[in-house]
Amino acid sequence: MLRLVPREGKQGSQEKDVGMPQGMPQPVKPMLQTKNVIKKYRLGSQVVPVLNGITLEMLPGEVVAILGTSGCGKTTFLNIAAGLERPTGGEIFIHGHALNKISEKEMAAFRRRYIGFVFQLYNLIPSLTALENAVLPLIFEGVPAQIREKRGRELLQAMGLGDRLRHKPNELSGGQRQRISLARAMINNPRLIFADEPTGNLDSKTTGEILQLLLASVRERGQTLLLVTHDPEVAAYADRIVEMVDGRLLFPQAAAENNYL
Q1: What is the model's pLDDT at position 119?
Q2: 36 and 54 in contact (C-beta within 8 Å)?
Q3: Can you name the residues that pair with 56 across neighbouring β-strands?
Q4: Which of 8, 74, 114, 255 has a 20 to 30 Å separation from 165 between CA atoms?
Q5: Model pTM score
């Protein structure tokens, strides 16, 4: 937390900021803030409600898990929070930027700057190598080939894939493919990472390895992580767990105080 510090006045004396008591911490701007988010889909003549007033706030560096069964709306919420879908109602802010005020044309550039996304099914391009998949966001940013290859090599080596750079997805295991997905999500050093069931297709041993790698990478870079899962053991890796039922969030708990550990 940032604290107010004295600053020099014109005569060299220390002039204190006014308006707050000395030593009082300044408020921290949330990294993610959603207010009464609603999502409805129209199926023929029917309107199907999926999200029913989701309000959530995450501070910089926080790791939050949304825990819920299949069909509860958690992936829809993740997509909306990441700007991949528009809500029917409500507001979403990422580091103070209102997503509803960002045009579709500008949204892709905004996501590349602020957001990394980890998909359950990896979403790798089959014809590209591990290295080429990892550096895709840098290509869209116009980063020179030599720089993006250097950054991609370093990140994949940190992920334990230094000897798999030229392998294509069908030559790799599920855990290795998810490591590439992690590298791609982090290659631009985004402030906020979204992970949609990141271990849903992995065995228990590989699940633990991927989660430890994801958490270590996020902590090292000071990033904020929001993951959704149906698995209480996966959710237990978070600082805070919020349960979703029928498109609503239940009262949030700190991870250390819940019953999932």
Answers
A1: 87
A2: yes
A3: 34
A4: 114
A5: 0.82
How far CA 83 is from CA of 8, 70, 170, in Å, comes to 43, 21, 30
User: What are the φ/ψ torsions at residue 94 (nearest 5 degrees)?
Assistant: -115, 115
Strand partners, 240: 64, 254
Q: Which residues pair with 89 in a beta bridge?
A: 38
Q: What is the pLDDT of residue 93?
A: 96
Average pLDDT of each block of 10 consecutive residues along the chain (261 residues)?
38 45 69 95 91 94 94 94 94 94 90 89 93 92 92 92 94 92 92 92 88 91 94 94 94 47 39
What size, in residues, is the chain?
A: 261
Domains of the chain: 29-255 (3.40.50.300)
- Are 230 and 204 contacting, i.e. CB atoms less than 8 angstroms apart? no
DSSP 69-118: -TTSSHHHHHHHHTTSS--SEEEEEETTEEGGGS-HHHHHHHHHHHEEEE
Cβ 136 vs Cβ 157: under 8 Å: no
Question: Which among 108, 109, 112, 74 is positioned nearest to 197, based on CA atoms?
Answer: 74
**For residue 203, how far is the Cα from the chain centroid?**
23
Contact 178, 208 (CB under 8 A): no
What pLDDT, on the 0 to 100 scale, is given for residue 261?
Answer: 39
Q: SS3 for 9?
A: coil
In sequence order, the β-bridge partners of residue 54 are: 37
Distance CA 100, CA 79 (A): 14
pLDDT given for residue 23 in this prediction: 60
- Helix 174-186 crosses helix 145-158 at what angle (to 10 degrees)? 130
Contacts of 127 (CB under 8 A, 6+ apart): 168
